[in-house]
C-alpha cells in the first residue's frame, strides 16, 4: 500500500519531520505532498482531508485519513507489524510508548522557547529554568532507556524505533540552540544529526528560502553542527558526466560542480538538495563513485 503524506516546511515543521520519518525509516511507501505552512495556503491545502487542520496527515489507498503523529504511529504499527516500528520486547515496547506519549504531550517550555529550525546553530541562546528542567527530564529518560534496553544498538532502544522518530526534533532543538547537555545526550544528538534520513530531510529543507525567516532570533549564527557537507555549488554551464538525473532518470537541465567535476539533474530541487548534502543521497553517491 502506498500512502499520501501531507507535510509542512521541512526546515521548521517538527511534527512533519516525525510523520515523514515513520515512512522513510521503516520502508513504508508514500507520496509526499507539501502544505503551505508558512505560505498562507494550509487551510486550502488540507480542505479535502477533513477534519485535518494541521500537518502531518496521511491518507491510505482507500481514502482513510489519519492526522496527528501519535495516531499515525499507532495506525502504521498496527497495519505493518513486520516493519518493527515499536521494539519487539513487550517491556521495552511499553516503555517506548510511554516516553513517546510524554514527548507528544510535554516539554512545553522547550517547544515554545526553541522552535525547531534546521538552518544553523544560534550562538548565545540562554535557556530558561523551565527549558533546563525539560532538558533534565529528557536526559533522564534517554539515559534510563539506553541503560535498560539499548545494549543491541546505538538508538534509544538499541534498534531504531518510533521513540527515535519522536525524539528526532528534540535532538534538532538541542543542536539548533546549542543547549547544554551531558556527553551521553550529546552523543545521541550527534547520532541523530548524522543519520542519513535526517540529513536528506534537512538537505531538502534548505532548498527553500524564507523572507522573513520563521522563528528568527537576533543572535549570532554559526554552521549547523551536523556532519559538514562535501563542497559543491550550482553552476550555469559545463559538460555533465551524466545525461540523465540520478533521481528521476529524466534529461539533465541543471548542473552542479564538486571536486572539479560536473553533474546534471532534471530540476533545481534535485540539484540543490545534492549541493546541500551530496553524501546523503545514495543515488548520487553511486553516480559520483562510478
Automatic annotation (TrEMBL):
Keywords: Transferase. GO terms for biological process: glutathione metabolic process; L-phenylalanine catabolic process. Residues 1-84 form the GST N-terminal domain. One of its GO terms (molecular function) is maleylacetoacetate isomerase activity. This is Glutathione S-transferase. It comes from Roseovarius indicus. The lineage of its organism: Bacteria, Pseudomonadati, Pseudomonadota, Alphaproteobacteria, Rhodobacterales.
Amino acid at each position: 500500500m502506498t500512502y499520501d503524506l501531507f507535510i509542512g516546511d521541512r526546515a521548521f515543521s517538527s511534527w512533519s519531520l516525525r510523520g515523514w520519518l515513520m515512512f522513510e525509516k521503516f520502508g513504508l511507501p508514500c507520496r509526499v505532498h507539501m502544505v503551505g505552512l508558512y505560505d498562507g495556503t494550509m487551510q486550502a491545502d488540507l480542505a479535502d482531508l477533513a477534519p485535518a487542520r494541521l500537518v502531518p496527515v496521511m491518507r491510505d489507498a482507500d481514502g482513510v485519513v489519519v492526522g496527528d503523529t501519535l495516531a499515525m504511529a499507532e495506525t502504521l504499527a498496527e497495519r505493518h507489524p513486520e516493519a518493527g516500528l515499536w521494539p519487539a520486547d513487550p517491556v521495552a515496547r511499553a516503555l517506548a510508548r510511554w516516553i513517546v506519549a510524554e514527548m507528544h504531550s510535554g516539554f512545553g517550555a522547550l517547544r515554545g522557547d526553541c522552535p525547531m529550525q534546521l538552518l544553523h546553530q544560534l550562538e548565545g541562546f540562554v535557556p530558561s529554568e523551565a527549558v533546563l528542567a525539560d532538558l533534565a527530564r529528557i536526559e533522564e529518560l534517554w539515559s534510563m532507556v539506553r541503560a535498560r534496553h539499548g545494549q543491541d544498538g546505538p538508538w534509544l532502544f538499541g534498534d531504531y524505533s518510533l521513540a527515535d522518530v519522536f525524539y528526532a526534533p528534540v535532538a534538532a532543538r538541542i543542536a539548533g540552540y546549542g543547549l547544554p547537555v551531558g556527553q551521553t545526550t550529546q552523543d545521541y544528538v550527534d547520532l541523530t544529526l548524522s543519520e542519513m534520513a535526517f540529513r536528506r530531510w534537512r538537505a531538502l529543507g534548505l532548498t527553500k528560502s524564507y523572507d522573513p525567516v520563521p522563528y528568527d532570533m537576533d543572535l549570532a549564527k554559526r554552521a549547523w553542527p551536523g556532519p559538514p557537507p562535501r563542497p559543491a555549488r550550482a553552476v550555469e554551464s559545463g559538460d555533465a558526466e551524466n545525461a540523465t538525473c540520478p533521481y528521476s532518470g529524466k534529461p539533465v537541465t541543471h548542473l552542479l560542480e564538486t571536486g572539479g567535476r560536473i553533474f546534471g539533474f532534471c530540476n533545481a530541487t534535485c540539484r540543490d538538495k545534492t549541493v546541500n548534502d551530496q553524501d546523503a543521497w545514495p543515488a548520487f553517491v553511486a553516480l559520483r563513485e562510478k
